[in-house]
UniProtKB/TrEMBL annotation:
Residues 601-610 have a biased composition (Low complexity). This is FtsK domain-containing protein. The lineage of its organism: Bacteria, Bacillati, Actinomycetota, Actinomycetes, Kitasatosporales. It comes from Streptomyces werraensis. Residues 265-465 form the FtsK domain. Residues 549-569, 601-625 are annotated as: Disordered. Keywords: ATP-binding, Nucleotide-binding. It comes from the Bacteria.
């Protein structure tokens, strides 16, 4: 077609182009001027009038063919063909009687107007026809969709009847844009049926619907108490590993901080202006990774300062500090960057300083910001980049709260004080726990203040009491989330349900530090003044020296296969095959090497005079246990375990030896022994009443080193 059109346009004769697009006016003009041209040329050259008729017939035919190809309506084709034939009739007449007469010109103008009007009406008709076709197509799609929705609704009405013995009326079915499932909005029957009756049958409903593993049918309250929303996932997104979204744009405390995504692939946010959070995850569940994800979100926020207490060799906080402290990363314009967190306490003393400062700041804010509160007519301090919220992240903080140890009890009291007094003044906490949920959730303060809750399961079923973590939520089963980084999350805004955290890679932490360096707020003057030198000097060399000491022996240091006889705790803590070094560990190793180089001559502030240096090989790497070493009771217990030799000892014996001096209870020692066993420091031998613990060095069959 295009070729024909071009050929015609390039021709030298009168414009007889039936392929070019014409509107009603240009179409009529084209037809009449074409006819006029043919008539005048024809008259001047004494062309036989029959030729004009032939040209018109050809034009009518050509336009009809072109129209047919373009699938024009019959009416359009007829109008166009008629235009050509009328035009041709006039031309034939004009060639015979002379085109340059008033009669000829007047009639030609009339024909032009007529053709224009006819073309206009056909164009409108064509437009309407097209719209009608589109509408019909959409009606068909909608009909198909609603047929599909009706089928889903009918299927679930039957299923809920069969499984829960409740006859619901489905009022809507919404398919998720992510394509991973759908939601049903249903009305409960009169007579007192409640949404939680359906929620409690989640597992049976999922089985009845033959959902793939990891997919669930979860019920939650509807628009009022007589309605229920049932979210049905059909694709298991929890199984997939998704890395932290690489867009590190600014966030705010007020708009929520994304912590992961739901089974429908939608992100879930934590709103922490007034809430504290509790994140429970046993070893290997992906808890450390999640803490990094949380710190990433806080780093991105323009109105949050993050203070981290991490008494566990700094694995949570160090990657956010060391690259900046060591000057390893620079901003785009070559300036040094600020650390991704605002304060890191890795020792007991520093943690006490931090918590005392938090209490002082909260009290000072309460007094100093009376005006601001009055102006905003609120008793909640308005948080902004000028007056930022302090988020206190305490790794394994729940264990501190549950500990019977004297020092830890002191810390615990301070943590609880911050939680109790600082809500209105913009200090909230995120506590993580390995699993001591019973103890921690027994605390009224935590139950009341920490309603943002996460349970990372990662396949671990032991000690996971979801009903305690998420009271009132039924139908949650640990087996639904067997993947690392997956589990359950519930907030006051979003009912407890399956979720997964993003995997955050070490290079992303560095990228986020660089990307957010200019964005971190500064502690407001009033608070900074109250915090005093304890805060201002937090990055001083002597106060950050512990970072060097918390250097566990890494596989790289023990030889590429970790064949040295020193303890490789990090390898034991994960289920990674021996000898494999994660990029995270490798990064940490490099940081440590640099900080070693920087602080190599600094004295170890926590090593008591006369304490023998940890053996380079063949013995326990005490520096790896520095967190525990800060605690003399635990240190003494470890010494007793070592001293007990191959015979081993038990919790009661150790507790008896410690109780006078340290007030340590048997229960506390049981906790330590359990942790040491998990970490590979101690080995449990014998069963029942004969069960005892032997230090790894004296264990009957020492498993190969990591
Ligand atoms: N969200 C996630 N997606 C995919 N894989 C993950 C995720 N989180 C963690 N993992 C995997 O699980 C491994 C262990 O994660 P992580 O170190 O965070 O666990 P942990 O519970 O803190 O264990 P540990 O106490 O031994 O450090 C990671 O190395 C990674 O391979």
């Amino acid at each position: 077609m295009a070729t024909t059109a071009t050929a015609n346009q390039n021709g030298s004769g009168p414009v007889l182009d039936w392929a070019a697009g014409h509107g009603p006016v240009t179409g009529a003009l084209s037809a009449t001027t074409g006819a006029f041209a043919v008539a005048t040329t024809g008259a001047a050259t004494h062309m036989p009038p029959g030729w004009a008729l032939a040209v018109g017939a050809a034009g009518a035919l050509g336009h009809t063919v072109a129209g047919l190809r373009a699938r024009n309506a019959g009416r359009t084709l007829a109008t166009r063909a008629a235009s050509w034939l009328v035009g041709a009739g006039w031309t034939t007449w004009a060639i015979t009687h002379g085109p340059l007469t008033w009669a000829a010109l007047g009639s030609l103008a009339t024909i032009g107007v007529g053709i224009g009007a006819a073309a206009r009406s056909t164009a409108l008709y064509e437009e309407a026809r097209e719209e009608e076709a589109i509408a019909a197509e959409q009606r068909q799609i909608a009909a198909e969709l609603s047929a599909e929705r009706r089928a889903i609704a009918a299927e679930w009405i039957d299923r809920i009847q069969r499984v829960c013995n409740i006859t619901v009326r489905v009022v809507g079915v919404e398919k998720w844009e992510t394509g991973t499932g759908y939601s049903l909005d249903a009305e409960l029957p009169p007579g007192g049926a409640t949404w939680n009756k359906i929620a409690a049958e989640s597992a049976r409903l999922s089985a009845d619907a033959r959902l793939p593993h990891g997919c669930t049918a979860t019920a939650s309250p509807g628009i009022h108490q007589g309605r229920v929303i049932i979210d049905v996932t059909t694709v298991n997104v929890l199984e997939q590993e998704r890395t932290y979204p690489a867009e590190y744009g600014p966030l705010s405390l007020h708009t929520g901080i994304p912590w992961g995504y739901r089974t429908n692939a939608e992100e879930i946010r934590a709103y922490l202006r007034e809430q504290c959070a509790l994140v429970v995850g046993p070893t290997g569940s992906g808890k450390t990774n999640m803490v990094h994800g949380i710190l990433a979100g806080f780093a991105r926020a323009e109105d949050i300062l993050t203070w981290v207490i991490d008494l566990n060799a700094g694995s949570a906080g160090l990657p956010w500090v060391l690259p900046a402290l060591n000057g390893e990363i620079k901003t785009g314009d070559g300036k040094p960057v600020r650390p991704g967190i605002d304060w890191l306490a890795g020792t007991f003393e520093e943690a006490v300083t931090m918590l005392d400062t938090a209490v002082t700041v909260a009290k000072q804010r309460k007094m100093g910001y009376q005006d601001l509160l009055a102006r905003h007519n609120t008793d909640l301090l308005p948080i902004s980049p000028q007056v930022p919220q302090i988020m206190l992240v305490i790794d394994e903080g729940a264990e501190i709260l549950a500990s019977g140890d004297r020092q830890m009890r002191k810390l615990a009291e301070k943590i609880l004080e911050v939680i109790r007094i600082a809500r209105a003044m913009g200090i909230r906490t995120v506590l993580t726990a390995l699993g001591a949920t019973g103890n921690v959730l027994g605390n009224l303060m935590i139950r009341r203040e920490a309603k943002v809750r996460v349970a990372l399961t990662g396949g671990e079923t032991e000690g996971m009491d979801l009903s305690k973590m998420f009271p009132g939520s039924r139908g949650l089963r640990v087996e639904q989330a067997p993947y690392k980084g997956s589990g359950f999350m519930g907030t006051p805004e979003s009912a407890a349900a399956l979720f997964k955290t993003w995997r955050i890679l070490p290079n992303q932490i560095r990228d986020i530090i660089a990307a957010t360096s200019d964005r971190h707020p500064r502690l407001d003057d009033l608070s900074a003044k109250a915090a005093g030198p304890a805060y201002a000097r937090r990055w001083d060399t002597e106060r950050t020296a512990w970072m060097r000491d918390h250097t566990p022996s890494t596989p790289a240091e023990a030889g590429p296969t970790g064949a040295g006889s020193g303890l490789n705790l990090s390898a034991l803590r994960t289920e990674r095959p021996t000898g494999q070094v994660s990029p995270e560990e490798e990064m940490l190793r490099q940081f440590r090497a640099q900080i070693d180089a920087q602080f190599a001559t600094a004295p170890d502030p926590t090593t008591p005079a006369g304490e023998p240096a940890p053996p380079a090989s063949g013995g326990l790497n005490l520096s790896a246990l520095r967190g525990e070493q800060d605690n003399p009771a635990q240190q003494a217990a470890l010494a007793l375990l070592l001293a007990a030799g191959p015979e081993g000892t038990g919790a009661s014996a150790i507790a008896r030896a410690l109780t006078d001096e340290y007030g340590t209870s048997r229960q506390t020692v049981v906790g330590w022994l359990r942790d040491w066993t998990r970490q590979g420091i101690a080995v449990r031998v014998g069963e029942g009443t004969k069960a005892r613990y032997v230090h790894r060095q004296h264990a009957p069959e020492q498993p190969p080193e990591g």
